[in-house]
Amino acid sequence: MENCESLPDGIQHLASLSRLELSHFDMQELPEWFGDLTSLQELYVIFCEKLKCMPSLEAMRRLTKLTTLEISECPLLEKRCRQQSDVDSEWPKISHIPNISIDYDFFMIFQIFQIFLIIYKLKGLKLNSVAGPTRACISRVRFRPI
Predict the structure, then answer these.
(1) What is the pLDDT of residue 110?
(2) Dihedral sign computed on CA atoms, order 37, 38, 39, 44
(3) What are the mean pLDDT values of the chain's consecutive 10-residue runs (146 residues total)?
(4) C-alpha–C-alpha distance, residues 88 and 107, integer Å
(5) Residues with Cβ < 8 Å from 134, sequence gap 6 or more?
(6) Alpha carbons 65 and 15: distance in angstroms, whole number
(7) Which letter does DSSP use for residue 15 in this model?
(8) Which whole-number Å values give the CA distances from 76 to 7, 86, 112, 121, in the listed order?
(9) H or E element at residue 130
């Protein structure tokens, strides 16, 4: 579904819905009835720049078959879904889901990589080559002693 300001109410009656992808969704939060999608196994939330809240904890806990949650390019929701003790954290609502993927942006990956390099320089190693950097990760890094 793209460029929607709300989910169609009819979706809540799809008892056998097992996979749902929300893309370019313009709401700030998912509706409470979302917890009634009890057959849902996979949820992908992509490019939802305004979305910042999942349904309530009770609604999310009703999604007992939900095994995969991917959140990508949703900066407000990503920030709130990271494992934090912040009062605005959405983590308690999703922590029961076995497979969670939150897209950490390239800037964060780059910062981690810089720390990685500092550690190896301190250990007396020299970076030999970096091959195949991607948006989500650096696929191969080779080191050799100095």
Answers:
(1) 60
(2) positive
(3) 72 90 90 94 92 95 96 90 78 93 65 73 59 38 38
(4) 23
(5) none
(6) 12
(7) T
(8) 19, 14, 21, 35
(9) strand 125-133
Residue type, 111: Q
Q: Which residue has the tokens 């910062």?
A: 111
Contacts of 61-66 with C-beta under 8 Å, sequence gap 24+, read 61/35, 61/96, 62/35, 62/36, 62/38, 63/34, 63/35, 63/37, 63/38, 63/97, 64/38, 65/18, 65/38, 65/39, 65/40, 65/41, 66/40, 66/41, 66/42, 66/97
What sign results for the dihedral spanned by CA atoms 13, 14, 16, 21? Answer: negative
How many other CB atoms are there within 10 angstroms of residue 3's CB atom? 9
Could you give the CA distance from residue 101 to residue 74 in angstroms, rounded to a whole number?
12
Kindly report whether the global pTM for this prediction surpasses the value 0.70: no
Contact (Cβ atoms closer than 8 angstroms) between residue 65 and residue 40: yes
Q: What is the pLDDT of residue 145?
A: 39
Residues 6+ apart with CB under 8 A from 137: 109
